[in-house]
Amino acid sequence: MSTRPTPPSAAAGLSVYIHIPFCAVRCGYCDFNTYTATELGGGGSQREYPDNACREMDLVLADDRAAGYDYEAISTVFFGGGTPTLLPADDQARMLEHLTSLIPLADGAEVTTEANPDSVSRASIARLADAGVTRMSFGMQSAVPSVLRTLDRTHDPERVPQAVQWARDAGLQVSLDMIYGTPGERIEDVAATVDAITAMSPDHVSAYSLIVEGNTKMARQLRRGELETPDPDFMADAYELIADRLEADGFSWYEVSNFSRSHDTRCEHNIAYWRGADWWGIGPGAHRHRNGLRSWNVKHPSRYAAMLADASLPVQGSETVGREDREVERLMLELRLADGLAMDSLDLLGTDHAREQIDKHIRLGTLDAAAREAGVLRVTDEGRLLADGVVRDIVS
Amino acid sequence: MHQVFDERNQFVAMDVSPQEQAKIRPAHTQVDRIRNFCIIAHIDHGKSTLADRMLGLTGVVEDRLMRAQYLDRMDIERERGITVKSQAVRMPWSVDGEAYALNMIDTPGHVDFTYEVSRSLAACEGAILLVDAAQGIEAQTLANLYLAMENDLTIIPVLNKIDLPAADPDKYAAEIGQLVGVDPSEVLRVSGKTGLGVEELLDHVVRTIPAPEGDPDAPCRAMIFDSVYDTYRGVVTYVRIKDGRLTPRERIQMMSTLASHELQEIGTISPEPNPSEGLGVGEVGYLITGVKDVRQSKVGDTVTTLHHGAEEPLAGYEEPKPMVFSGLFPIDGSDYPNLRDALEKLKLNDAALNYEPETSTALGFGFRVGFLGLLHLEIVRERLEREFNLDLISTAPSVIYDVRMEDGTEVRVLNPSDFPEGKVNEIREPVAVSTILVPSEFVGATMELCQSKRGQMQGMDYLSEDRVELRYSLPLAEIVFDFFDQLKSRTKGYASLDYDVRGDQASDLVKVDMLLQGDPVDAFSAIVHRDKAYHYGVEMAGKLKELIPRQQFEVPIQAAIGSRIIARENIRAIRKDVLSKCYGGDISRKRKLLEKQKEGKKRMKNIGNVEVPQEAFIAALSNDGSSTNSDGKRK
């Protein structure tokens, strides 16, 4: 019998990510694990999907217990995709119900679902709220039709305020996602989008620069010269504009790409990732983390279904992150947070090299001098966009 | 027929009497039966093919054993079609029932090896001037022809490749007839490929080239015209006996160094070494003493016997003089010891190669290497990469500057980064006398180029109606920079160039430094003419700006002469260096990316606070400066 790692304290609850690998159309920039065909063979279809996910939850629970992990409560749940709301609300409700039958939700637990403004209705949102969803994150991306077209987003921007209103009426927190730096986007388009967002008064905003992965339709369009690669400085200009306008509207950043109206409306699920909590990753291609053990599922829904039918965990691969790497991960993730991290919590910050680099970045204005006096490593507002460089300098 | 072949066309014997054959027995060859000659030709004009044909006809190589181009031994030479190291082959031939020993001395075919060529010529009484009947004479051939004529060699003008459809023998016979001073009808016409006319050529060699002269009874004086390192035998030295004789197991002395060696083996080459009872006056052959370094057996030196040796060495000995210098650095710094070992090995076979360690902030540890010229540099670099499996970066080639300071001190600068501080009185740079042959339509373009490279015209002659010989005095530094590439591109490849360094001149030269955030980047310092300093600075600053990634702070790039800034660019600070999305599924991937970036940072060179990937320096150096090009065949 090998030595089991010490389970985290019971206070650190469990987070659960549930992946819905289906979309009505695949967007040109998207390299997520998602499928547009509604009928994938071999038990991988949308219709059979909730059952498969529930079966996986059973297996993961058994696996945790066998390894000595017995979580008391779930602190956050996040339905992501794909397009979770492409499934009937009842399906999502059923998965949530099954999950909480295995491990109860903690008091005040956060349950988020991503949603496409096109695939929700007043009724479906109400149903989700009824099932326990507390928060809805809309993939709005842009308020500018030409930008949405480049992104292959099918929704009508006019529908977003409507959907937001339904979510509010159902008592849900609302988050809006936007993407900046789409090929052809002008700085005025970014401004229009952020203004449209503040006009809807969401609780939370995520603003991502477009990352074009190598194997996407958009990457091919860029290679062929059909689209023009945005200038990296445009990305910085856009970010600064977004941050300024959101902050003027009462938001504050708590992570590089995430802004919240108050402490209570931050996305706890994502914070769990950044703070190194344990989480399940349910669904094809989903990642799971348990005290330094990272694993990821097979990507194809049919294969996923076949493995579950065989009562085996649909795991594609895994790795155990060693002590040093865990420190590197923590630095890499927690330096993204406005709260930063306690310097004495990482050995790697105690070296002469790290101290030199920290001094350098304080001089450059990327790290916060006052925070360091208080024993906290955090980036300044100006240093937010340079956080990865700080990490590289410290760990190299 | 001069030789006897059997029914399978294999060589059996010469069709001369045994008495005649005895007259050409190695070590005892009658002087009047010896003919020593070389072939002067441009690299692709068919010299090796003709030589092979001669080896076949004279029976020293059986056809079926003949490896194409037998005389060119090294792979690089074969691939590039150039001959670097010459060898001497002894071939029997008979004319009118009399036996002769022909020694064919192979000459290096390129500009960088002028001195070696001159020694090969000095070992001969005659030369075959071989010209491609479709191309006409080239500048280097012309230069070597002049050298042969100055040495009073008998010239046999020959047009080769007359079997080619594109051949225009009448035109080129007129051209070379005029150069050599013979009637065009006296220009022989051969095809090395088909063998047409080659027997007649050999007969002609016997009839027109004089027999060697020398005093058989005087103390021995043998001139070294080549020296090659062989892994098994040590150094093999090729000599021509000018006076006296050498016999095996004698002690010999090198007259330049007075070093003495035991003569382990002596003989002739046909085309493999055949030990003999010695070498007599006028003969050509090899000797082996067991030394391991060609520096102990220098081209041009005189070999004599230790006891009762000659008093006076033969005239014409010169130490090899490197003219062009370049820093060679391993791309992977851990290859430095391998580079050192490889240079040591090459040096054994290359008396002209010299080097010393050099440290560069930009490129790390390497060597400052001196070369005879650009081709020599290219060959050495290619051998290092190919035979020793090294990846190298070379800095822009430079020449030797003689810097005279106001306080009277003089500094020889082989490396721009060694340029002295302080008040300079005068800077002198080497000057090359250059011969350029071009079709007349390109005369204007060529003159313009020479002018822009600070050339002084010395003369111009029409070789024929449409071919012109231009003579310029040009700073060597301009030639090694990019002159040859530019010449080629402005003349659609038709120009040929030869140059010979003769003396130096005072010039208005300055050292331009490239600074990153105020810190000099040594690999990019250059000594250039004042009028071109600005251009160099602007171009290099622009190039570095493109190649150096943005840093966390703004980085000024400056070009400076001393403390005066002549050009400036800015690398703006990077503004966004953070992954936008980093959620559960991204973490492993991002950590692995970070690992890679960590490795990448280790390979960065720090110039002050600026981190520069070595690739940026390499890119900045490789598409600039060095006019070495990879096509090898220079026209």
Q: What features would you describe in this structure?
A:
- Chain A is an alpha/beta fold and 396 residues long.
- Chain A contains 14 helices and 14 strands.
- Chain A has helices spanning 49-66, 89-102, 122-131, 145-150, 159-169, 187-199, 217-223, 232-248, 268-274, 301-309, 323-334, 352-364, 369-373, 387-395; strands spanning 14-20, 74-81, 105-115, 135-141, 173-180, 204-209, 252-255, 258-260, 278-282, 287-290, 293-297, 315-320, 341-342, 376-377.
- A nine-stranded mixed beta sheet of chain A has the order 7-8-6-5-4-3-2-1-9, sandwiched between helices. In chain A, strands 10-11-12 form a three-stranded antiparallel beta sheet, with no helix packed on it. A two-stranded antiparallel ribbon of chain A has the order 13-14.
- In chain A, helix 1 crosses helix 10.
- The two termini of chain A are 37 Å apart.
- Chain B folds into five domains: 3-208, P-loop containing nucleotide triphosphate hydrolases (Rossmann fold, 3-Layer(aba) Sandwich); 221-305, Elongation Factor Tu (Ef-tu), domain 3, CATH 2.40.30.10; 324-395, 2-Layer Sandwich (Alpha-Beta Plaits), CATH 3.30.70; 402-507, Alpha-Beta Plaits (2-Layer Sandwich), CATH 3.30.70.240; 510-622, Alpha-Beta Plaits (2-Layer Sandwich).
- An eight-stranded antiparallel beta sheet of chain B has the order 12-11-16-9-10-15-13-14. In chain B, strands 4-5-3-6-7-8 form a six-stranded mixed beta sheet, sandwiched between helices. In chain B, strands 21, 22, 23, 24, 25 and 26 form a six-stranded antiparallel beta sheet that branches.
- In chain B, 51% of the residues are buried.
- The model of chain B is unreliable at 80-86 and 624-635 (pLDDT under 50).
- Chain B has 14 helices and 33 strands.
- Chain B is an alpha+beta fold and 635 residues long.
- Chain B is globular and about 95 Å long.
- In chain B, helix 12 packs across helix 14 (614-622).
- Chain A binds chain B through residues 17, 208-209, 211, 232-233, 235-236, 239, 256-257, 270, 273-274, 279, 281, 285-287, 289, 294, 296, 319, 321, 325, 328-329, 332-333, 336, 361, 364, 366, 384-389, 391-392, 395-396, and chain B through 552-553, 572, 574-585, 587-588, 590-591, 594, 597-598, 601-602.
